[in-house]
Write a structure and sequence with these properties.
- The protein has a six-stranded mixed beta sheet with strand order 3-2-4-5-6-7.
- Strand 2 and strand 3 form a beta hairpin.
- The protein is α/β, with parallel strands linked by helices.
- It is globular and about 35 Å long.
- Helix content is about 25%, strand content about 35%.
- The chain contains three helices and eight strands.
Length: about 140
Amino acid sequence: MLTIDQATYDAIVAHAKRDHPDECCGIVAGPEGSDRPERHVEMVNAAGSPTFYEFDSTELLELYKQMWDRDEEPVVIYHSHTATEAYPSRTDIGLASEPGAHYVLVSTREHGNNEGPVEFRSYRIVDGEVTEEEVTVVPTLA
């Protein structure tokens, strides 16, 4: 189960809506071994595409250096789908390289960057196996 605070949830949704019609991507880092998504980091979709996302390699390397220095790890890796449901594509599954991370997908297909709800779902992806998990949004992390 993914437990995420309201402010981080809202920031991910806002990022997805703002970047629509292109896919957005980002990471929420947390202390190593904690499973606590604490530090939201918006990333640039280097692909600049409505159907594909790609982390900028230089930006990603800098983020990993920061996380190593702070004893953090990627707790949530997220991106949006702009025209399809919030379910990992074959490409998404192939790119999933952090077995301990929650892979969050936000679908903006219904309302785009306008007001309205989004589909916000989380998965564990290990060795190509996709398992959906419950998402609990709390006011703040305990």
